[in-house]
What does this fold into?
Amino acid sequence: MGTESSSLAAHSLGDKQPEIFERVPPRNGSFTGRESLLHQLREGTRSVTAVIPLPQALQGYGGVGKTHLAIEYAHRYRSHYDLVWWIPADQYYLVPSALAALAPYLQLTPASVVGVEEAAESVREALENGAPYNNWLLIFDNAEDSRIERFIPRGPGHVIITSRNPNWDDQFRSLQVDVFTRDESIEFLTKRLGARITKDEAFRLADKLGDLPLALEQVGALQRRGTMTVDDYIELLDKQTARLLGAERARDYPLTMTAAWRVSVSLLEERLEIALNLLRCCAFFGPDPIPLDVFRRGNKANAPSLEKLLADPIMFDKSVKELSRYALIRSDPDNRTIQVHRLIQALLRDDLDEVRQDRQREEVHRLLAGSAPQLPDDNSKWPDFADLVPHVRPSRLLESSEPSVREFALNVVRYLYSSGNYRSALELVTASIKEWGRTRENHPDVLRARRHQGNTLRRMGEYAQVYDLDRTTLANVIAEFGPEHEETLIARNGLGGSMRARGEFREALELDEESVSQHERLLGDDNVLTLRAKNSLALDYGLNSQYERARRLHTEVYLAQSEAINPASSEIVLLSRNSMARAVRLTSGFEEACDTGEDALAFGVLKLGRDHWATLMTAKDLSIAQRRAGALEQAISIARDTHARLARLFGPRHPDTIAAAVNVSNALRVRGDLAEAYELAEEMTRAYPAVFGEDHPFTLACRTNLAILHRLLGDPRKAREINEAAREGLTARLGPEHHYVSSCTVNMASDLAALGESEQARALGERTLEDLTERFGRDHFLTLSCAANLVLDRVETDAPDADKLRAEVTDLYQERFEQGQPDAVTAASSIRIDCDFDPLPI
It folds into this structure.
C-alpha cells in the first residue's frame, strides 16, 4: 500500500474502543482506495469538514461514495474517539431529533422529558464544552440544507458533513470526492472478486462503468455470484446503454449507473421476481433506513404488490437476502433496517409509469400508517414514531386522501409536539393544511389539522396567533360538522383556552360552562373529552376567583381519571393532581397544598423526569405554596431551579418562564432581597406586554408586584401611581370583585398609609374588608391580610374597635394557619402585609 498506507495503518483501529459508537451504518467489507481522502479527513480533526463531490461529479443523485467514505472513516478511526454519532441529515426538520437522541449518553435530560429542541441544544452545548467527552466525532450525512449549520457543534471534537451541496465549501474546510481513479476501481473489483477476475477484466469493467463506485458495487455483486463472464456482462451492459440512449433516458442520471442497474434488475427478475416487488416498494420510502418492522406490523395493510411477501415471512427474509447480495439494498441486521441508495430509488421510480408509481406510493402510505403505534402521546412509543417520521415527506404521504393515512399524518404531528419538537410539528401540520386544502379549503381533515396546529402554537406560547385560528376553526367546524359533533366539542374547548390566554376570563367561563353541559349530555360524565372540558372549566373558576368551585371540580376530575375507567397519561394525571393542590392553596390550605404538591412533584420526577414541562409547572406551584406556608428557603431554591430549567426549555419570553420569574421575585421580596426582587419584577413588567398585550390582566397585575417594591424601597408615591392605574385596568377587564382587583386595593391602602394619608387608607380598608368577607369569608388569607392592615390604620386614626379587630385577626391566624406562617408573623409584628400576584395557568 506504500508509505502513505503504512502511515494510515499506524493511525487506524487499535485496541481502544469508543465508549459510544452509535447509529453508524455497517462497514463495507469491500471498501477500497480513498487513502488520500481518509488521510485528509484525519488531518481535519478538531474542525468541521464537508465531504462534497467535485463539480464535474455532481450529476444526478450522486453515487461517488461520499457516505461510504464517512462510514469507513468512522470505523477505521473509531479508536481515536470517545464518542462517534451518526446523524441522517437529509431532512432538516429531523436533525434535532437525531441530535437530541444523544442526550442520555451525555448524562443530559432526554428529549422525552424536556422536548426535542431543548435536548438538541443541550447536546450541542455539551459537545462544545467538552463535557463529558472532548474527543468526539459527529457525522451529518446527506446534509443538503444549509440551515443545519445551527446544529453543528464547534469545539474540541470533529464534524464530518457529507453532501451533494457544494455551497458547504464556502463555510467549512471541504474535501471534494470524485469517482474512483482507475487503479482504485481495479483494486475494488479484485478485492471483491479475487481470482474470479483478472486485472485486464477489471480495467475493462471500470472503463465501461466510468469508475462510478455505486455502479462498480453492482457489477461486483453480480460477478461474485458467478452468473456470467465479464464479456457476457459487458455485452448486456452495451445493450442496455444503447436502449437508454435510444429512449433518451440518460439525461437525469449517470448513464453507466442506469445501465448497470438495469442489468442487475433483469437478472434478479429471472432468479427471484417477487423480490423486485419489495425493491420497488422501497423506492417510494425515504432514503433513510427503513425499519423491517414496517412490513411486520403493517402486514395487514392493503398492499397488493407485497401481499404474498407479507403473508410469507420466510420468503420475505429470502428476498431481503437476495436484494442485499445483488447490492440493490443495504441491510443492517443489528438495527433491523434496510436502505436503498437514493439513485437506485430514483431509477426504480422512473422505470414505472405514473399510474404504477401512484399505486406503489399508496401502498407505502398504507404500510406506514398500518405499522404506526396508536398513541402518539405515550412516550414509550416515541422511538417507533421516530423511525417512521423520516419517510413521511419523501413518500409524499400528505398527498394521500385515505382517512387512515391522514390520521397517521396527524398522529405524527401529535408525536412531534408531544415530544417537544414544536417547530417540526408546526412545519408538518402547516404543510398538511396546505396540501389537504387544495380540494376544499375547509375539508374535514383540514379542520382537524388546524386543531393540531392550534395545540402546537399554544404549547409554543403563541397565544395571539392561536386565538384567531381557534375562532375561525370553530366557526368552520360548526358549519362542517354541526353544533353537537365531537369535533365541535373539541374545537370549542380549544377556543376556551385561547380566550383564557387572551385575558377574557369571564367570557371563557361562560363558554366552558355551556361546553361542559354539552359534553355531559352528549358523551356522559366520565368520557375523556368531558373530563378535559371539566378541567378547563375548573381553570376558569380559578381565574375568576371562584376558588372553592375550582377546588371541587379539580378534585372531581382527578378522581375520575381512574386507570381502570379512564386511563390517562402520566402528564395528564400530574397536571390534574397539581391543579388540585393549587386550588387548595387558593382556598388558604397552604400546608395541605404543600403536602399534595410534594407528592405530585415526586410523581412527576418519577414518571416524567425533573425537566418535563408538567413537572416544572408542579414545582413552581409547590414553591408558591411553600412561600405561603413559611418554608421560605425551600421555596426560593425550587423557584430559582424551576425558572432556570424553564428558561432553557422554552426561552426567557415564554409565558411559563415569565410566570416562574414572577415567583422568584416574590420569594426574594419576602426574604428581604429587595434589590434583586425589584430588578426581576421590573424585567417581567416589560416581558408581559410583549407576550400578552398591554391590557391583559396578567400584564396589569404584574405591575402591582413592582408597586409593592417601589413602596418598600421608599417610593410610595410611585407605588400608588402604579396601583391606581393597574386597579382601573383590572376593574375594566375583570370586574370590581375579582381577586386581582382586591389585592391591588389592599396594597393601595398601604400606599396611602405610607404617604401619611391614614384616614383615606382606613376608609379604603374598611370598604375592602367588607367586600372580601362577603366574597371569600372572614378566614380567607386575602381577607385576613386586609383585616390585619386595617388594624394598623384604625390605630393610626384612633378609630374604635382596633383592639377588637386585632384580637379577631390573631385568633383566626392561630386557628387557620400553622405557627410561623409569614402573614401571621407579619401581622403579629404590626407590619403591613403585601398582597402579591402569581399568574395562574391558562
Residues 1-13, 55-61 have pLDDT under 50 and may be disordered.
